[in-house]
Amino acid sequence: MNTAPAKMHSTMAPPRLEIRNIRRFFEGRAVVDDVSLKIRAGQVTCLLGPSGCGKSTTLRMIAGVEMQDSGEIYVDGKLICDTVFRVPPERREIGLMFQDFALFPHLSVADNVGFGLKGSKDEKRARVEELLNRVSLKRFIDGYPHQLSGGEQQRVALARAIAPRPRIMLMDEPFSGLDNRLRDGIRDETLSLLKEEDTAVLLVTHEPEEAMRMADEIALMRGGRIVQQGAPYNVYTHPVDKAAVAFFSDVN
Ligand code: ADP
Ligand code: MG
């Protein structure tokens, strides 16, 4: 038997985020049932599936605000959570963005984006300006959330989530509250901003079209399980079963 250690190569580095065999039961029913996923830095993985299939519950366990009943979560190959050991949410270096993840109404745009940043006042200000420039909202730096449109607030929320340079970015249907006219622009802007940052993105959506547009990898979920996984084109052109065909063709 070859017992020599495997030679490490950069492409063999552990994934930024790995969840292994995660399960979560509610009232005796497995709402997340043996889910495993690997996400590399610089990649967007879409957890795609109909309402109620367990997407948000999966995200909450990764964020650490809910505990799995079995399975493990690793960041850069290091265990951060199993059923006995648990790194608390605030030490997971995870950025969150939800549809209704409101800005702090009493804080200026600058203070919203700078919230939770470490460093000197000048360093924080520089990072806030950099991000507001990137989302084309520098002119609102001293404004307040109520002065912004829904789309603008969403871009500030994105800037705020990215500002602390999270290792992992979790996004739960972040665009579903926006009207169609705005949505495509914000999706593209979000994607280009995320790709510049050294982060691994897990985007939850029930819209195949959004997954096709944004994902490097799609994990198709149904009834708590991942039923198919692969590059968007492959998943779309080779649906795993009739239910997957129906799900993809339901898009308007
Ligand atoms: P999705 O985000 O895909 O719409 P969720 O993860 O929110 O799905 O929910 C998956 C299933 O788990 C649903 O049937 C939901 O009703 C159930 N569920 C979620 N949270 C709880 C809870 N705290 N208690 C009981 N059932 C829950
Ligand atoms: Mg949900």
TrEMBL record:
Keywords of this entry: ATP-binding, Cell membrane, Ion transport, Iron, Iron transport, Membrane, Nucleotide-binding, Transport
Any one GO molecular function term: ATP binding
Domain ABC transporter: 17-248
Protein name: ABC transporter ATP-binding protein
Organism for this UniProt entry: Leisingera aquaemixtae
Parent sequence residues shown: 1 to 252 of 368
